[in-house]
Amino acid sequence: MGKPEHFADLPGADAQGDAVLRVRGLQTHFFTHGGVVRAVDGVDLDVRAGEIVGLVGESGSGKSITGFSVIGLIDEPGRIVAGSIRYGGRELVGLSERELQRLRGKEIAMIFQDPMMTLNPVLRVDTQMIEAIAAHERVSTAAARERALQALAMVGIPSPAERLLTYPHQLSGGMRQRVAIAIALLNRPKLIIADEPTTALDVTIQAQILHEVQKLCRETGTAMIWITHDLAVVSGLADRIAVMYAGRIVEAGSTAQVVRAPLHPYTQGLIHSIPTRATHGQLLQQIPGMTPSLLHLPAGCPFRPRCSRASDACLADPAPTHPAPGRSVRCWHPLEQAA
């Protein structure tokens, strides 16, 4: 399928080397009665035009809060306490809610894990898609409807004209998620944040959506952060992977580098827990223990209590190192040294 005319002139599509998003030292804390929860604790992240960056980690690692921080969806008792979020060279930290609303849906879009967080159950799909366009620009109803048809076709929805006339409850879970993705694409955003949007879908529908998303980013130049706990899924989708643990990115690099030659013991543990043909019939290797409470993190490296390579040096907090261009790791005993 060729690139639809409406999406052909997306800004940034030809600037593959430019960072659409640049996050530096991001800290998002939640101030609770039990103490301060450091949900995001010093995250650095770059996303370029047309690039898919996978943000991977267990539940509670800070992945979703990182995405919500970028788009300004942190509610009390949480708030960004430090760091910089620059989108297209513009600082987002400190913008008013009104200014953020101008960006949401237009410049930066978000796809939630549950499509019903995006879709209104009592409105038809065409009404919701047309309103999403009209909220940001003046267009005729006919032009908005045509754009909605193009967006539905781009995400592989058959008979898009018929789907426009349905209500969300009349669609399957996979179709609802495709509609949510299409709504995210309506206003030609330069950046999409996808928060585990295929977790609840069966593997066949998941594979179809992953294929469509990858194709869309290539065709339109849209940058994407794909948040997931499933390293197997993101390894076939993302250009680069950032692995999060306890609010920090502990390893980052190209997908091939991270999957084939992990540096951090936590990344290796995630890879070894994925079933493969070679491990058929065998017990998978598990990461011992549980993700630590962000209220009571251990001293030094947060992964130390679960790590087989831990030593006294790990009682001090490791700083990020860059063993190769485009790679980073926070570990006193990276696996590359053992090799």
From TrEMBL:
Cellular-component GO terms for this entry: plasma membrane
Subcellular location: Cell inner membrane
Pfam families in the record: ABC_tran, oligo_HPY
Membrane-related topology note: Peripheral membrane protein
Main localisation: membrane
GO biological process per UniProt: peptide transport; transmembrane transport
Keyword terms: ATP-binding, Cell membrane, Membrane, Nucleotide-binding, Transport
Top-rank lineage group of the source organism: Bacteria
Domain ABC transporter: 21-271
UniProt family annotation: Belongs to the ABC transporter superfamily.
NCBIfam families on file: oligo_HPY (TIGR01727)
Name of the protein this chain belongs to: Methionine ABC transporter ATP-binding protein
Species of origin: Melaminivora suipulveris
Source species taxonomy: Bacteria, Pseudomonadati, Pseudomonadota, Betaproteobacteria, Burkholderiales
